[in-house]
Design a protein that fits this description.
Blueprint (H helix, E strand, L loop, with lengths): L1 E6 L2 H16 L3 E6 L10 H7 L6 E2 L7 H19 L4 E5 L3 H12 L4 E4 L11 H12 L2 E4 L2 H9 L6 E3 L3 H16 L2 H4 L8 E4 L3 H4 L2 H12 L5 E4 L2 H5 L10 E4 L4 H9 L3 E4 L2 H9 L4 E3 L15 E3 L4 H7 L19 H10 L1
Parallel strand pairs: 1-2, 1-4, 2-3, 4-5, 5-6, 6-7, 8-9, 8-11, 9-10, 11-12, 12-13
Helix pairs in contact: 1-7, 1-15, 3-4, 4-5, 7-12, 10-14
Bound molecules: uridine-diphosphate-N-acetylglucosamine (UD1).
């Protein structure tokens, strides 16, 4: 079996780091394509270097652009690549980015069976570009690899249960695979001067926050009222819009962190404050309470006992949420029925 995997944005490199070795183990040949959606070294190359993801055979060098530009560009170049290097037995796409959508459309129109890893996640908010990408990709997929029970229910409601396979969350696999290495290579003192539990860790990159000055102000005004420093590894999207926003003295803006650095920072944080889909789960798995800078999450399991709280960008809600303590145990999140999700994905594909 020969599969073509398309990655392009930071979280997809992490997911491929878990799935690619499992494919190899199952005897599946993989050709890895990088769409070029993320092109900064700190958003892309470091992940390959650090996680041992096989080097992409080609980089489609898409870069930034409007949604249509980015999606269209990837489609044109991927279709050509696939036609020149195929045939492929499957195309694998991850998550919900424009890269995911482009890969899904090319596979579907080329009659190549499509596998969607992290299928069935829904925020029920179509103002998020990711929600549109997810819905379309799921509709076109032959293998819907769902990370959670709720994801399988979402797919059932859309009439897609026949092709749904609950496998668990490949990002949980990645944390298991890399957490020890993170602590060895990046002990806390090498990534921050703060002591364990004496800082908040934040990331902000969603358009709902970065493209809305009122929201950004609400978030930074809240940060200024917090009793601990806020470590903020900054995505270039956010950096570009920060002019005009006053950064409070207790906020430490840093370059984007690598995955391993981020694992260490997350493990030791007092709380995580983020609009990222992946980081909210990592905080949960490490038992660190999380404040979600969005109105909703795809993982409502995390609300139980206040392990996660959605505050949007509301200044007062953010400040209040930082003193809420979880009131009981967590539920299971992302654990697969057969252990590692990646291994189950590989077995399902190998059929
Ligand atoms: C994308 C995904 C989002 C995912 C995130 C992870 C979509 C619609 N969004 O958001 O779901 O959570 O990746 O990080 O696909 N930029 C750079 N350098 C880069 C990449 C981006 O400077 O290497 C800047 C550019 O100004 C660009 C902006 O970030 O215009 C947005 O990049 P884009 O890839 O469109 O989306 P993300 O915000 O990264």
């Amino acid at each position: 079996m020969h599969v073509c995997t398309l990655v392009g944005a930071r979280p997809q490199f992490i997911k491929a780091a878990a799935v690619s070795p499992a494919l190899k183990e199952a005897g599946i040949k993989e050709t890895l394509v990088h769409s070029g959606q993320h092109y900064d070294k700190l958003l892309s190359q470091v992940f390959f270097d650090e996680l041992g993801v096989p080097a992409p055979v080609v980089n489609l060098e898409t870069g930034s652009g409007s949604h249509a530009t980015q999606t269209g560009y990837i489609m044109v170049r991927l279709e050509k690549f696939i036609n020149e290097t195929g045939p492929y037995d499957a195309v694998i796409v991850y998550g919900d980015t424009n890269t995911t959508l482009a890969g899904a459309l090319v596979a579907a129109k080329g009659n190549i069976p499509l596998a969607h890893v992290e299928s069935g996640m829904r925020s029920f908010n179509q103002l998020m570009p990711e929600e549109i990408n997810r819905i379309v990709t799921d509709r076109l997929s032959k293998w819907l690899f769902a990370p959670t029970e709720i994801a399988t229910q979402n797919l059932k409601q859309e009439g897609l249960e026949e092709n749904t396979i609950l496998v668990g969350d490949v990002m949980l696999d990645a944390t298991h695979m890399f957490v020890e290495r993170a602590q060895e290579l990046y002990p806390l003192e090498s990534v921050t001067r703060h002591h364990p539990r004496e800082y908040f860790l934040s990331t902000i990159h969603r358009p709902s926050n970065t493209d809305n000055e009122e929201n950004l102000r609400g978030i930074f005004d809240a940060f200024g009222q917090l009793p601990l420093p806020v470590v903020l590894p900054l995505h270039p999207r956010t950096k570009a819009v920060l002019t005009g926003i006053t950064i409070p003295d207790n906020v430490e803006v840093t370059r984007p962190a690598s995955y391993l650095e981020m694992l260490t920072l997350t493990l030791n944080a007092n709380r995580v404050i983020t609009d990222s889909g992946g980081l909210q789960k990592e905080a949960y798995w490490f038992g660190v309470p999380c404040i979600i800078l969005r109105e909703e999450t795809e993982y409502p399991e995390m609300f139980k006992n206040n392990w996660s709280i959605c505050t949007g960008a509301n200044e007062q809600s953010i400040v209040s949420a930082t003193i809420v303590k979880p009131s009981g145990p967590q539920c299971r999140l992302g654990e697969g029925p057969e252990g590692y999700a990646s291994a189950m994905i590989a077995r399902s594909l190998a059929g």
